[in-house]
Amino acid sequence: MRKLIAAAVVLIVFSVVAVVLWKVGKSRTFQFFGEIVPRVETSQKIVALTFDDGPTPEFTDAILGVLREEDVKATFFLIGGELERHLDEGRKLVAAGHEIGNHSYSHTRMILVTPSFVKEEIEKTDDLIRAAGCDKPTHFRPPYGKKLFALPLYLSQHDRQSITWDVEPETYPEIAQSTDAIVKYVLDNTRPGSIILLHVMYDPERKSLNAVKPVIEGLKQKGFRFVTVSELIDAGKRL
Ligand SMILES: [Zn+2]
Fold this sequence. Notes:
alpha/beta; TIM Barrel; 5-stranded parallel sheet; 10 helices; 9 strands; 46% helix; binds zinc ion
């Protein structure tokens, strides 16, 4: 009987630890080491528009065109492997004055990974970002927002922050299917200091890409100004 109780206790403890680690692993606002920034606290009506993945030759010019028309600087979290294949697209993003962040080399979920794997993913991608013309890669965004021990530890040891987001329309399948729904969601949920996440580099139907212009115009109408992630962090108090 005693053994049975001991086994049950071990099982319960193990399950609780597993659930806690799973929740921390996917949290946008908490990690065990260093800073994670889902948004900043500010009274100014400023927001950061961020784009993940790529660059791809199919869609880089299109998103650059919209941002140029609207005179908005955004932040692109690029995948090292994609940048290696399409360095010219990365160069265009840098030359247009957008901020470039590191989004790992292979876009792997950084949950049960070794310190050496993390180092290689980050450093190799930093080298490629530099090759694209950006002298100082600063921010890192975990693929799928996932991290546990090795990644946050490495970033904190190198004085770098994990940047997540607080406005993510594409997370909801019913919203992601429609440009209008994406626009409405972003306009309804963005507040001062928000970090908006969109993916525009792969979808041939351009649902998110087509949302960018109306999102920018709608937020401008509400009095918002667009800044890069670094500018947002400088302007606000980190949460
Ligand atoms: Zn990604």
